[in-house]
Design brief:
The chain is of the alpha+beta class and 359 residues long. 41% of the residues lie in helices and 14% in strands. It binds iron/sulfur cluster (SF4).
C-alpha cells in the first residue's frame, strides 16, 4: 500500500470508525474476548454478548476461576462453543503464567483459541505492536486494491498479504488504527457485493475500481452444497421432569445439553430412530408419544431437520439412566440454567413442549 493510501485510510478512520464496546477500553483481556467472539460471528451479534461477558467476568482471574457451565451459559446462542471452552482454558493458562498476556504474537498463538489473526489483532490493538491482522475483510480490500483475482482463501495468499502489509504497518505510527481501519473499511465501505466506492478513501489507489468491475475481485471459490442431516430426539418426561444429557467435550457443541437422540439410519423412520437412540444412549425403553415439532436449523457446514417426540417410559418404577455422559432430570423452571444449542431452543418454543411437564 502506498503511503498516501495509508494516510487517506487513517484520516477516514479517525472520522468514521465504528463505536464498539471493546474499543472504549482496549485492555488485553477485553481485546482477547472481543476477538474470540468475533471469530465467525458478526459484530452486531457479538456486542450484547461481549457486554454481558465482561460484566460477569471482568478479567482473566474471574474467567479462570469460573465454572465452565457458567461460561457456556453466557455463550449460549453465540455458536461455535469450542471458542468458549478455549477462552476459558486460555484464561487459566494466563493466570498460571502470572496473569499477564504477552505482547508477542508468537507467544500469544501458543495459548488455546488464539490463531495467527487473533494474535496479531491483540498485539496491535492492545499493545500497539506492528503486526497486520489479516481477516476476510482485509483480504477483500487488498485483492481489490491490486485487482488481484487469485484465490484469497488459500494459506499462501493470506501469507502473501500478511508479508506485504507487515512492511507497511512497520512504517505507520499507529498499528492499532491501521488494522482497525482496514477492518472498518471492509465492513462498512468495501462490501462484498456492493462496495461503496464513492465513499471510499482508497478509491484513487484502487485498481479494481479503475477496472470498472470491483466485485470481480477477489475471485469467489465455488460454493459447495450444504448437506442436510435428519435427526430424531426423545423428550422423556417423568413426574414433571425432563431428561437431558450433556454432550461430550470433544464433540461439536461440546459441553452443551441436549435431548437423547441422534441421526436416522438408512431406512429408519424418526420414531424408530428415537427408540433406538434412547435405548443406546440411556438404556431406557420408551413408548413414543406425540410429535412435538419438526424444526430446521443451519450450522456452518451442514443443516439439520430435527424431529422431536414426547416419550413415556415403558417400564414402571424409578428410571435408571445408564449413560456415561452427565445427565439430569430437570423441572421446567430450571431449564434456563442449562446451556443448549440453538436448535433445541426451537424445540422449547414448539406448541406442546411445555405440556410434557404436566404429565
Ligand atoms: Fe473497495 Fe471500491 Fe474502495 Fe476499491 S474503491 S477498496 S473496491 S470500496
Amino acid at each position: 500500500m502506498e503511503t498516501a493510501a495509508v494516510k487517506s485510510m487513517l484520516a477516514w478512520y479517525r472520522e468514521h470508525q465504528r463505536v464498539l464496546p471493546w474499543r472504549s477500553l482496549p485492555t488485553p483481556y477485553r481485546v482477547l474476548v472481543s476477538e474470540v467472539m468475533l471469530q465467525q460471528t458478526q459484530v452486531a451479534t457479538v456486542m450484547p454478548y461481549f457486554e454481558r461477558f465482561v460484566q460477569t467476568f471482568p478479567d482473566f482471574a474471574a474467567l479462570a476461576a469460573a465454572d465452565i457451565e457458567a461460561v457456556l451459559k453466557l455463550w449460549e446462542g453465540l455458536g461455535y462453543y469450542s471458542r468458549a471452552r478455549r477462552l476459558h482454558a486460555c484464561a487459566q493458562q494466563v493466570m498460571e503464567n502470572g496473569g499477564e498476556l504477552s505482547d508477542d504474537p508468537t507467544e500469544l498463538a501458543r495459548l488455546p483459541g488464539i490463531g495467527p489473526y487473533t494474535a496479531a489483532a491483540i498485539a496491535s490493538i492492545a499493545f500497539g505492536r506492528p503486526y497486520p491482522a489479516v481477516d476476510g475483510n482485509v483480504l477483500r480490500v487488498q485483492a481489490r486494491l491490486l485487482a488481484d483475482d487469485g484465490d484469497v482463501s488459500s494459506q499462501s495468499a493470506r501469507r502473501r498479504v500478511y508479508e506485504r502489509l507487515l512492511a507497511v504497518i512497520r512504517q505507520t505510527p499507529d498499528p492499532s488504527a491501521f488494522n482497525q481501519a482496514q477492518m472498518d473499511l471492509g465492513a462498512m465501505v468495501c462490501l462484498p457485493r456492493q462496495p461503496l466506492c464513492d465513499e471510499c478513501p482508497l478509491r484513487a489507489f484502487c485498481r479494481a475500481f479503475a477496472s470498472g468491475e470491483p466485485t470481480v475481485y477477489p475471485r469467489r471459490p465455488e460454493r459447495r452444497v450444504t448437506p442436510r442431516m435428519h435427526v430424531a430426539v426423545g423428550l422423556i418426561f417423568h413426574r414433571g421432569r425432563l431428561l437431558i444429557l450433556r454432550r461430550s467435550e470433544d464433540q461439536m457443541l461440546g459441553g452443551l445439553w441436549e435431548f437423547p437422540g441422534g441421526k436416522l439410519e438408512s431406512g429408519e423412520t424418526p420414531t424408530q430412530a428415537v427408540e433406538r437412540e434412547v435405548r443406546e444412549e440411556t438404556g431406557l425403553t420408551v413408548e413414543i408419544g406425540a410429535l412435538v415439532g419438526v424444526i430446521r436449523h443451519a450450522y456452518s457446514h451442514f443443516r439439520i431437520t430435527m424431529h422431536a417426540y414426547r416419550c413415556r417410559l415403558a417400564e414402571v418404577g424409578e428410571p435408571v439412566v445408564a449413560c456415561e455422559r452427565p445427565h439430569a432430570w430437570v423441572i421446567a423452571e430450571d431449564l434456563p440454567k442449562y446451556a443448549f444449542p440453538k436448535a433445541n431452543h426451537k424445540i422449547f418454543a414448539c406448541d406442546g413442549f411445555a405440556e410434557g411437564f404436566q404429565e
